[in-house]
Design brief:
heterodimer; A: alpha/beta; nine-stranded mixed sheet; about 30% strand; B: alpha/beta; Rossmann fold; 2 domains; ETF_beta_N (chain A); electron transport (chain A); Electron transfer flavoprotein subunit beta (chain A); transport (chain A); electron transfer activity (chain A)
Chain lengths: ~240, ~325
């Protein structure tokens, strides 16, 4: 089985998010980057499926050379080779077009993404890849089991799940429950250095959207500490009017 | 030109998020002086669709052909794009629900449209360009996006847009479009629903608990409080990682992001990743025995105390309020 895992290079989950240039540019000063946590789930699943010579795992990232440590980490976790599309990931539409352009005609049986990236949270890439490659896609999978040529997928819905089955190839956006993220071991880290990392140049993609500016959430007023529950209930009922 | 809103159904019924999408699309139609057209796909009774009239929908396209009874994003996206073309829609609105997330990008790609995902307020217009606000960085910030393509697609976050009524009478018009068999390759075997549960992303009140509860056996009091409030239950990441509660209840940066009217956090210290998932809640109540818990810094109301004492009393006090 030939598997492609799409990974995004994102600020660590503990990052404080601030902006520069009159709130038009994300302030990357002091930010540590990681593999998007949902993409780590996708990668762990792919490595699990390919184990024991049952398949190969290619990771792809759209980013400049600064993302290579993240790509090497994915190789250390167990991907066989990597591709970096040498461009700033402008938005989901741009990224999906680059990945689709690389993936078309390569015969991937399974294309995995995280359900969303934790920076722009668009949750778009899985469905866009499905559209661009004319493949079925499931955007938020809680479970993924491959049996022969079939993918059995639990898709998250409000208050429950759909149990789905689809023939490969398919694009799946993975969420918690699909696999436990893997921590690279020393052998993996050493081996990652010599695994192939191919750099390809981007294709042109029309601009449909852009970000004009950012805002930080307004600070809340000071907390009102109360001593007993009756007082709290009165405030929630009379002041906040939420119960 | 028209504004097209896709109306999602759950087992033939329309939920609040569907009406929110309709009311939001109506407001955009009023901004633009365009007509509003709704599209329903699947098996929804006329009487149910007529409820959309309350929010200003005067025309509902009803695609109820037999092969569209089950949701398949690839096929549904093709139908929505076909309807958008027929109506010459300049804006297509969908709900940013779990299904909507699998649908909106496909619709946008089919229409060569930019997608504003997870919009939280009405757009503004600058000539042909549309500006709309969304959350970014997992709720740690907001981004204002400019969509510059001729056709625009917006997916609306649940609980973000206040339902406004503008009563009209909705006419229901059958809509048929060819469905490519290749678009129906995903087979639905079963839908599993926790029937008595309130859906977390759409809940107006959320009762959430963390490691302070010490073990999964202590969740009965959380569920009882949720029950009297008509709330959904949620938890912090360590709790779902430990398997005390299902992943679908995990609220935070790498879980579900919620924006209820009231979020009650019990025994959750308030790590930055958790706060990101709840910061757009309108009112936050924190119950924690540690007065230094970071969660108090972003709370509106707080009780410093032992959850095992406070929560049952709170449940009782709310029950009394509801009974009087």
């Amino acid at each position: 089985m030939k598997i492609l895992v799409c990974i995004s290079n994102v600020p660590d989950t503990t990052s404080k998010i601030t902006f520069t240039n009159d709130n038009t540019v994300f302030n990357t000063a002091g930010i540590q980057y990681i593999i998007n946590p949902y993409d780590e789930i996708a990668l762990a699943k792919a490595v699990e499926l390919a184990e024991g010579g049952k398949g190969t795992v290619t990771v792809i990232n759209v980013g400049d050379a600064a993302t290579e440590p993240t790509i090497r980490k994915a190789l250390a976790i167990g991907a066989d080779d990597a591709v970096r599309v040498n461009a700033q990931p402008r938005d989901a539409w741009f990224v999906a077009n680059q990945i689709a352009n690389y993936a078309k005609g390569q015969g991937f049986d399974l294309i995995l993404t995280g359900r969303e990236s934790i920076d722009y949270n668009g949750a778009q890439v899985a469905a866009l890849l499905g559209e661009l490659l004319d493949l079925p896609s499931v955007s938020i999978a809680k479970k993924l089991v491959i049996e022969g040529n079939e993918a059995n997928i639990d898709r998250e819905i409000e208050g429950g799940k759909e149990v789905l089955s689809v023939s490969l190839p398919v694009v799946v956006g993975t969420a918690e429950g699909v696999a436990e993220p893997k921590i690279p071991n020393m052998r993996g880290i050493m081996g990652a250095r010599s695994k192939p990392l191919q750099v390809v140049e981007p294709i042109e993609v029309p601009v449909l959207a852009s970000i004009a500016r950012y805002e930080s959430p307004a600070a809340r007023g000071a907390v009102k500490l109360v001593d007993d529950v009756d007082q709290l209930v009165q405030l929630l009922h009379g002041e906040a009017k939420v119960i | 030109m028209a504004i097209l809103v896709y109306i999602e159904n759950t087992d033939g019924g329309l939920k609040k998020s569907a009406f929110e999408a309709a009311a939001y699309a109506k407001a955009i139609a009023d901004q633009k002086g365009d007509t509003l057209v709704a599209l329903s796909i699947g098996d929804v009774a006329d009487a149910e669709l007529q409820k959309l009239g309350k929010y200003g929908v005067t025309k509902v396209l009803n695609a109820s052909q037999a092969n569209l009874k089950q949701f398949v994003n690839k096929a549904y996206a093709a139908i929505i794009a076909a309807a958008a073309k027929q109506e010459q829609a300049s804006v297509v609105v969908l709900s940013n629900s779990f299904s909507g997330k699998g649908l909106a990008p496909r619709v946008a790609a089919k229409l060569d449209a930019g997608l504003a995902d997870g919009a939280i307020s009405l757009p503004s217009w600058n000539g042909n360009d549309m500006e709309v606000k969304k959350t970014a960085f997992s709720n740690k910030a907001f981004a204002t996006e400019i969509i510059s393509s001729p056709v625009k697609v917006i997916s609306l976050s649940p609980n973000a847009y206040e339902l406004k009524e503008s009563p009209a009478s909705a006419e229901i018009v059958p809509f048929t479009a060819d469905v490519n068999a290749n678009d129906l390759s995903v087979v639905l075997k079963e839908i599993v629903r926790a029937t008595d549960k309130i859906s977390l992303p759409e809940a107006e009140i959320v009762v959430s608990a963390g490691r302070g509860l010490k073990g999964p056996e202590n969740w009965a009091m959380v569920e009882e409080l949720a029950d009297v409030l008509g709330a959904a239950t949620a938890c912090s990441k360590p709790v779902s990682d430990a398997g005390w509660r299902p992943h679908s209840e995990h609220v935070g940066q790498t879980g579900i992001v919620v924006s209820p009217n009231l979020y009650i956090a019990i025994g959750i210290s308030g790590a930055i990743q958790h706060l990101a998932g709840v910061s757009s809640s309108k009112t936050i109540v924190v119950i924690n025995k540690d007065p230094e818990a970071p969660f108090f810094k972003v709370a509106d109301y707080g009780i410093v105390g032992d959850a095992f004492e406070v929560v049952p009393k709170l449940t009782e006090a709310i029950r009394n309020l509801k009974n009087n």
